[in-house]
UniProtKB/TrEMBL annotation:
Transmembrane segments: none annotated. InterPro entries: AAA+_ATPase (IPR003593), ABC_transporter-like_ATP-bd (IPR003439), ABC_transporter-like_CS (IPR017871), BCAA_Transport_ATP-bd_LivF (IPR052156), P-loop_NTPase (IPR027417). The keyword Transcription regulation does not apply. It comes from the Bacteria. GO terms for molecular function: ATP binding; ATP hydrolysis activity; branched-chain amino acid transmembrane transporter activity. Residues 6-239 form the ABC transporter domain. This is ABC transporter ATP-binding protein. PROSITE patterns: ABC_TRANSPORTER_1, ABC_TRANSPORTER_2. Belongs to the ABC transporter superfamily. It comes from Mesoterricola silvestris. Gene3D superfamilies: P-loop containing nucleotide triphosphate hydrolases. Keywords: Amino-acid transport, ATP-binding, Nucleotide-binding, Transport. The lineage of its organism: Bacteria, Pseudomonadati, Acidobacteriota, Holophagae, Holophagales. The keyword rRNA-binding does not apply. GO terms for biological process: L-amino acid transport.
Length: 245
């Protein structure tokens, strides 16, 4: 891959006494969705948190737009145009949907200062957010909370989105809504690195895929190639994507 937007070279991450990432090599191309797959405990979430500076790499380099960001603090990484949607969504339950969105727009002190056209675009992706605009976020359903978490990440244009298991625990109808929203988001030239356990979700959206095992990337390539190769799916993941369609 020539000049990837994001690149990890031999990244190791220790959390206390635990050596979680053990030499991760990963490249994410500009304007594509790369999906991180792997069994529980393989290191996927730790990879996202290390990129975001929430956990520090003990060795190796994380490069974004050609610059090493390994030693930067999380706020400085965010200011470079990277947003992170954690598995626990990271929303403020006691604040309204409107207040959550205003806080996420770093340049706005009042909702009137948020880009109105972009808000309307987000409402088109997630109509429930407009309906519950003045409701406390803690009263939203699980799917609506996930929509809010993604909406907060895109309330301003970002160069890279790191999203951890957006379909986890969601009903099939909500998952289809999320797939449609991500498809539209991909048309905006936004680069996405997605951790996902729903393999049908991943197959429909991913351009590239990287499979992790024991803290390393053990396979990387086009998602279409993995989706068509059931033996490779069994070897890497212990299951068939076809069984989850």
């Amino acid at each position: 891959m020539t000049n990837p937007l994001l690149k990890l070279d031999g990244v190791h991450t220790h959390i206390g006494a635990y050596h979680i990432l053990q030499g991760v090599d990963l490249q994410v191309a500009h304007g594509e969705m790369t999906v991180l797959l792997g069994r529980n405990g393989a290191g996927k979430t730790t990879t996202l948190r290390t990129i975001m500076g929430l956990w520090n790499a003990s060795r190796g380099a994380v490069t974004f737009e050609g610059a090493d960001i390994s030693a930067l603090a999380t706020p400085d990484i965010a200011r470079r145009g990277i947003a992170y949607v954690p598995e626990n969504m990271g929303i403020f339950a006691d604040l309204t949907v409107r207040e959550n969105m205003t806080l996420a727009a770093r340049g706005a002190r009042r909702v009137e200062e948020v880009d109105a056209a972009r808000l309307e675009w987000i409402f088109g992706l997630f109509p429930a957010l407009k309906k519950f605009w003045q409701h406390p976020a803690g009263l939203l359903s699980g799917g609506q909370k996930q929509m809010l978490a993604v909406a907060r990440a895109i309330v301003e244009p970002r160069k890279l989105l790191l999203i951890d298991e957006p379909s986890k625990g969601l009903a099939p109808a909500i998952i289809q809504n999320m797939i449609a929203a991500f498809r539209e988001l991909k048309q905006t030239d936004t680069t996405i690195l997605l951790v996902e356990q729903n393999f049908n979700f991943a197959r429909q959206l991913g351009d590239q895929v990287a499979v992790m095992d024991n803290g390393r990337v053990v396979h990387a390539g086009p998602m279409a190639a993995l989706a068509e190769d059931e033996k490779l799916q069994q070897d890497l993941l212990g299951l068939s994507l076809g069984a989850h369609q």
